[in-house]
Amino acid sequence: xxxxxxxxxxxxxxxxxxxxxxxxxxxxxxxxxxxxxxxxxxxxxxxxxxxxxxxxxxxxxxxxxxxxxxxxxxxxxxxxxxxxxxxxxxxxxxxxxxxxxxxxxxxxxxxxxxxxxxxxxxxxxxxx
Length: 128
Known about the structure:
Layout: H1 6-36, H2 44-82, H3 92-97, H4 102-126
Helix pairs in contact: 1-2, 1-4, 2-4
């Protein structure tokens, strides 16, 4: 099996970060739901404060991951440009003219689109 190309490595990193960002959003939603289920007892205020702190920490982590996604997306775009392909446009015939496997280029473009969606979702959710 030949070694992975720089485009494949960059694409895999972008996909991993996008998944990670989505999992943090899921975690934050679960934390918010947990706040609404806190029983009214002597520990309710403390428990709610702890949950809100966890949500704030998750928001900070999401922002960092979002920055990492932007950096990773830029690397994928740079790799696509380095093999004479346009990052998000072009027909399959244009992909064929490049110096990279067409399927690999298509995966990279899909990862870029997915990452852009994740970044947009994060900005909407966090009000950024």
